[in-house]
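Onboarding guide, step 5: your first structure request.
Type a short instruction followed by the sequence, for example:

Predict the 3D structure of this protein.
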Amino acid sequence: MAAASLLALLDDIATVLDDVAVLTKVATKKTAGVLGDDLALNAQQVTGVSAEREIPVVWAVAKGSFRNKAILVPLALLISAFAPWAVMPLLMVGGAFLCFEGFEKLAHRFLHDADEEAAHKAALAEAVRAPGVDLVVLEKQKIQGAIRTDFILSAEIIAITLGTVAEAELVTRVAVLVGIAILMTAGVYGLVAAIVKLDDLGLYLSQKGSAAASAIGNAILRAAPWLMKGLSVAGTAAMFLVGGGILVHGVGPLHHWVQETLHGLSGVLSTLTEMGLNAVVGLVAGALVLAGVRLVGRLRGGSHAHG
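The system replies with structure tokens like these:
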């Protein structure tokens, strides 16, 4: 009897772990858009910090990210336990925010004046070099800003993960949410640390006596800026794919339209078509939300002016 009970317990544990593994894999795929954006944003946050302070700054932001998730994970579990009806609306809000954030990046990229952006960056660089600037205060401001950004992105990750595991058992929900929180934080900030040190590695190798090491170092130095740009582009594209996909699955008529469009297609063509449709929905949703935000901002500005 005891042996049978133990085997039954082990079977239950194996089933739970299998569910956790599958759901974690699904949640990781769904949060890939946020992850790409998270990487690009946090790597950009440490620009302007001296080389010897880059890793301490990344570590400080990583600790802040763990604190963020220590707040968000229990909150997500409470919502799923006591207000499960709120999971889908929260997921839809998260999807809409992803689309908005992606479209805002596109609008800034294509509508912003390049000369004005260059002048702004030059002014920031000059301010950092000014003798009266307290670099400790500047560093703390960068860390606090990065942690605030991380809170928003972490909330999106947890909301998307919660939507994936909403119907699972409590133990599975806890395991997947905690697993994703740890995996994403360690993965993001480990990669950020590696990215911000790429130029140092390239410089070190380029100064070695070996021709092969020097060639690799120079290649790394040339590739590092393109890696940052690639991460930013991939992150923005994934925001539309993930955000649009969330909205498509959450809005009945949209989901029906996509399924009807995919009818008869199979394999790679079906997958690519679905991704394209999700991206289109994401772009349209992002444009509408951005237009709404801008309109509200102007109306509030006008009311304040009249007041």
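Each response can be followed by summary notes, for example: The radius of gyration is 23 Å.
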